[in-house]
Amino acid sequence: MNRILIVEDEIAIVELIQAGLAKAGYAYDYALDGAAAAEKIEQDEYDLILLDIMLPKLDGYELMEYIEPHRIPVIFITARSATSDKVKGLRMGADDYIVKPFEVDELLARIETVLRRYNKSQTQLVLEDVTIDIEARSVIKNGISVELTPKEFDLLLMLARNKNTALYRETLFERVWGEEFMGNTRTLDLHIQRLRKKLSWQDKIKTVYRIGYKLEVES
Amino acid sequence: MRFSLKLVLCTTVITALLFSICGTIMVKENFDRSMDSAVKQNVNQHTLERYALESNMLGYILSGEEFTDEKLAEYGYRLSGYTGDKARRIAIFTGDREEIYSNFPQELTGEAVAGVLNQKGDDYQLEQAGDEIYMILASYLNIESHPVYVASAYDVSRIFTERDRQLRTFLLLNGIIIAISLLAIFLLSMLLTAPIKKLNAASRKIAKGAYSERTRIRSDDEVGELSRSFDQMAQAVEDKIEDLNAALKQREDFIASFSHEIKTPMTAIIGYADMMRLAPCEKDTQLRYANYIYSESKRLEELSRKLMDLLSLSEEPAVLRPVDAERLFYKLKKQMEPVLGEVSLDMQAEKGYVLAEETLLNCLLRNLVVNAKKAGPKDGQVHVTGTAEGEEYRIRVTDKGCGIPKEELSRIEEPFYMVDKSRSRACGGAGLGLAICRKIAELHDGKLNFESEPGVGTSVEIRIKRVKQEEGENAPQN
């Protein structure tokens, strides 16, 4: 399991990120200022660091110099969106750069990309008899490859990542199709039906009354 | 046309003109004088010749011989033979103007000479014969009732050639003078326009952005003055540019801080709201997320409110009126006590009237008191004192709270700057309070003075102008 250090002085944001990380299955830890962060890096092992640039006591850039020797991948979080700041951050050795306000999903996607680069990511999701290869975008059930359209795959991935959680129909649609939900229930429902059929998961992909859908699997 | 060229041309033209005029006058003078003396001399000569002729003829007559034209011609021949043809040109005519004898050159024909014979007195006529010019003088003689015209021709070519020679010399000199003066003026104009070129070069450099360029021509003349003025102007421009750059940087910093202050709560609000709409959460999680959304939104509200205050302060100049200090403090106490909670307000104010904008000054004091409270005073008090000192009224807000480190003191009035971010944010602060106070202080023609020691406490002071007792009492208070 990958362990991620959150270095951010706003506790609200820390909790937000933690909720996201928990859902994605990462272990996490946090530090509210540069000095505490430096200590934690000394004491524990981390697979990735999320670093806010504007920190009290030691700012993000200075902390970078401290992190370098440990060779831990770093993603900068900051409100400064100027190109010069991005360039500075990347030049200083950050692996990626995300600007506030961000959506947690975007952050998770970037974390995944960076971890993959360092060969630390989970490239596969195993759910009972189905294995999803995230990088190859392929699905294997009981050893046999299953053909899914791109949207079907994305939908499955979404359900898999939020396994055993009921997801609201509208938001699910928005995430997968990238459009605002304007009553296009048919599209979503059809895709769900097809997924159920192709994976023979009629009893696993459940309809949740008044809410949406949920993938129920044993962890 | 270039200035230096103008200078050169004008000077040279004037010099040449003057020189020409002088030269011409001089040559003419010489010529006239030569001519005059030639005329005098020739007239004398002619008179002598006349006399000689007359004497000769009279001799004939007296010796009883007949006066004939032949005798006249003979005289002519004899004279020519005696003196040589060229030396004495003489022509003798009858009373009817018929030529008897002449050794005038070929070209001086009858018509030319005939004209002369009509002249009176010392009038002469100039006639050109080939390369020579002759002055012809003529007289009428009446020798014993025999009319005779005698004309003499004198070679005055020399006068003319002399004149021409002088003219040529003069032209040559003129040419040389012009050439020399051209050169001299050119060099001079280069010398004089050099500072102008320098000024030009400096202007161009400054226009390109080298604002510290100066001309530094320190001659004691108009050009030196111009250079000094120019340098002063350049300095003013440089200063202004520096000010503008500083202001620009300040603004950029402000915007950067501001956007950071906005983006962070927005991230939380968007993040939590998003999580809540993705999947149904447990009731207590939902409540926690909703609380975060609420508190971050309130933070944004506070921020926008304070920002509005700050911006509106920049707009209007404050109208200062006499304000009763006691009333000011009393109002402050009433407003602040319910808000301060466990912290109490210790207020001591001397009587006096200050020149202030009541609402703004009140806002300033409220901000200071709130800051004092947030510092967590050990004695649970915020002390506010007002003392009348001569022309000024001094207000102090003191606390025995956490204090401010010395390095940060210079920055606390910056917009959005917070010494202890987490604590400030926890109290709902946006970092704008002191920026607003500073603005208000400026509007009152004063500034805030901070004294602080970490762990001991902080004291903030402002001095405002006082107003005389009577003036204050007469002013309307609302």
Name the shape of chain A in a single word.
elongated
The beta-strand count of chain B equals 12
- Rg of chain B, nearest Å: 58 Å
Task: Profile the largest sheet of chain A.
Answer: 5 strands, parallel
The proportion of strand residues of chain B reads: 15-25%
Q: Supply the helix-strand structural class of chain A.
A: alpha/beta
* SSE string of chain B: HHEEHEEEHHHEHEEHEEHHHEEH
N-C termini distance of chain A = 15 Å
Helix % of chain A is 40-55%
Order of helices and strands of chain A: EHEHEHEHEHEEEEHEHHEE
Q: Which regions of chain A are unreliable across 5 or more consecutive residues at pLDDT < 50?
A: none
Strand content of chain A: 15-25%
Poorly predicted runs of 5 or more residues of chain B:
none
Distance between the termini of chain B: 73 Å
C-alpha Rg of chain A, in Å? 19 Å
Q: How many strands, what sense, and barrel or not for the largest sheet of chain B? A: 7 strands, mixed
Question: How many individual β-strands of chain A?
Answer: 12
Assign the structural class of chain B, choosing from mainly alpha, mainly beta, alpha/beta, alpha+beta, or little secondary structure: alpha+beta
Percent range for helical residues of chain B?
A: 55-70%
